[in-house]
Amino acid sequence: MNYKLRFSDKKQKIKISLPSSKSISNRLLIIQALSKNKIELENISTSDDTKHLIEALSTENETINIGHAGTSMRFLTAFFCIIGKEVVLTGSERMKNRPIGILVKSLNSLNANIEYLEKEGFPPLKINKQIPTLSEISIDGSVSSQYISALLLIAPSLPNGLELTLTGKIVSVPYIKLTLSLMQHFGIVWSWNENVIRIENQEYKSETLFIESDWSGASYWYEIMALNNLEAIELLGLSKNSLQGDSKLIELFEKLGISTEFGENRAKLYKNKKKLNFFEYNFNEQPDIAQTFAVTLCILNIPFHFWGLETLKIKESNRIEALMNELAKLGFELNEPQNGELAWSGKKTKVAENQHIEIETYNDHRMALAFAPASILFENLIIKDAGVVSKSYPEFWEHIENVGFIIDEII
Question: Domains plus CATH for the chain?
Answer without folding.
Answer: 2-19+212-410 (3.65.10.10), 22-210 (3.65.10.10)
